[in-house]
Design a protein that fits this description.
Strand content: 5-15%
CATH topology of the largest domain: Rossmann fold
Structural class: alpha/beta
CATH architecture of the largest domain: 3-Layer(aba) Sandwich
Strand order of the largest sheet: 3-2-1-4-5-6
Number of domains: 2
Radius of gyration: 19 Å
Helix content: 40-55%
Length: 252
C-alpha cells in the first residue's frame, strides 16, 4: 500500500496554460506565428552579417528541430534554445557574434512571456483550494521558453505563489518522464516520491511515467483529450473545478 498523498505535481502546458492559445493573439496583431518568427529571427541576424537565403535557414532550423525532438523523446533531454540554435548554425556552417546571438536567444525565450497564452479556466481556484491541504510543484518540460521565463509567466498570472517548487527540464537536466524530474519536485517539497500525485494531459509522460515511480496520476482532458481512451490514469479530470475533490479522494 502506498503512502498517503501529501503533495501534487502539475504539468504546465495544456494542464495549466492552454498551449498555442497565444497564436490567435499574434495573428490579430499582424505578427508571424511563433514557428515562422523563430526562423525569421535567426535569418534576420545571419543576413545582417552576410547575405543568406531565408529558405535555407528555415530548412536548417527544421533539421535542428528534428534532432531536438529525437533527443527529447529518446534520451529525455531538452536542449536549451541556445544549444538548439547552435546546432542550426553548425548545419549552416555559420556563426553569429555573441551579442547578436544573445539577442536571438532572448527573443526566442521571451516570446511566450510577451504575448501570453491563456490560462485554462478554473485553475486559479483549484490551486488555491489544493494548496490549503497539499504542497504543490510544477514539473514541466521547457521546449522553447526556459524555466526562468515559465516561472515569470506563472507570476504574471499570480499563480506562482501557489507552488512550493518548480522542476523545469532545462534546469533539472532531464525531461519527463525521467525520474530526476520527480525527484527534484519531491526534494523541493520535502516529501517522498510515492507521497505525490501528478496531474497532466499526456498518458506516456504524465501518467505512466509517474505511476512507474509509485505515484498516483490524473489525466487532465479539458484541452487535450486524445489519450483519454488509452490511459491507465488513476483518475480522469475534465475540468479544474473537479480537481480538488479528485485529489482528496485519491489521498483517502
Amino acid at each position: 500500500m502506498g503512502q498517503r498523498i501529501k503533495a501534487v505535481t502539475f504539468d504546465l502546458w495544456d494542464t495549466i496554460v492552454h498551449d498555442d492559445s497565444d497564436e490567435p493573439k499574434r495573428k490579430a496583431q499582424g505578427l508571424r506565428s511563433k514557428k515562422l518568427e523563430r526562423r525569421h529571427l535567426l535569418w534576420e541576424a545571419l543576413n545582417a552579417e552576410q547575405k543568406i537565403d531565408e529558405a535555407a535557414v528555415a530548412l536548417a532550423y527544421n533539421v535542428g528541430d528534428a534532432a531536438f525532438n529525437k533527443t527529447w523523446h529518446d534520451q529525455h533531454v531538452t536542449w536549451t534554445i541556445g544549444e538548439r540554435l547552435q546546432v542550426v548554425l553548425k548545419g549552416l556552417g555559420r556563426k553569429l557574434p555573441d551579442a547578436s546571438f544573445a539577442r536571438v536567444v532572448k527573443a526566442h525565450e521571451e516570446m511566450e512571456v510577451e504575448i501570453r497564452p491563456d490560462l485554462i479556466p478554473g485553475i486559479g481556484e483549484a490551486l488555491s483550494d489544493l494548496h490549503k491541504r497539499y504542497r504543490l510543484c510544477i514539473v514541466s518540460d521547457a521546449i522553447v521558453s526556459p524555466g526562468h521565463c515559465l516561472k515569470r509567466l506563472l507570476e504574471s498570472y499570480d499563480l506562482a505563489r501557489h507552488f512550493d517548487g518548480f522542476a523545469f527540464s532545462d534546469e533539472v537536466g532531464h525531461s519527463k518522464p525521467h525520474r530526476s524530474m520527480f525527484e527534484s519536485a519531491a526534494k523541493q517539497m520535502g516529501v517522498a516520491i510515492d507521497e505525490m500525485a501528478h496531474v497532466g494531459d499526456r498518458d506516456h509522460n504524465d501518467v505512466k511515467g509517474p505511476q512507474a515511480l509509485g505515484m498516483k496520476a490524473i489525466l487532465f482532458t479539458a484541452t487535450r483529450a486524445s489519450d483519454k481512451a488509452i490511459t491507465t490514469a488513476d483518475a480522469i479530470c475534465e475540468r479544474h473545478a473537479d480537481l480538488p475533490a479528485i485529489i482528496d479522494r485519491l489521498a483517502g
